[in-house]
Design brief:
The chain is an all-beta fold. The chain is built from no helices and 11 strands.
Length: 124
């Protein structure tokens, strides 16, 4: 059994670094920041906030089904994720990277979503 991390708050920042396993981080009024070097093939990543930014540093070469979105802000990613539709190119990126089915979902209403690749490419 993989423990992972689940962290929730209403007012404040959720900041997780050097963590692994399934990751569920959320807040209502605050930022969500994640930095991880390693995830197993089945480990999901779910980050959410309503009023705040999301910044995730994920292992380079990470594979999965990515779904990144914001309403008022921009979405950017180091991973090759296509825009969900032409009209929402800066607000919603969604698509498969590699062959793994891992879910990587990040959502905010008011703020940017930024995903950066960290370290050397992953081996899985």
């Amino acid at each position: 059994m993989v423990a992972g991390v689940t962290a929730r708050t209403v007012n404040g920042t959720v900041d997780a670094s050097n963590v692994s396993g399934p990751l569920v981080l959320s807040t209502t009024n605050g930022n969500v920041r994640l930095s991880t070097d390693s995830l197993a093939d089945a480990d999901v990543v779910r980050l959410s906030t309503t009023n705040g930014m999301i910044h995730a540093e994920l292992p380079a070469g990470l594979q999965g089904n990515f779904d990144l979105s914001t309403v008022n802000g921009a979405v950017s990613s180091d991973f090759p994720i296509p825009a969900a539709s032409a009209g929402r190119a800066t607000h919603h990126l969604q698509g498969q990277v590699g062959s793994l089915s891992r879910l990587v979902k990040m959502r905010t209403i008011n703020g940017p979503v930024t995903v950066s690749a960290r370290g050397a490419p992953a081996t899985h």
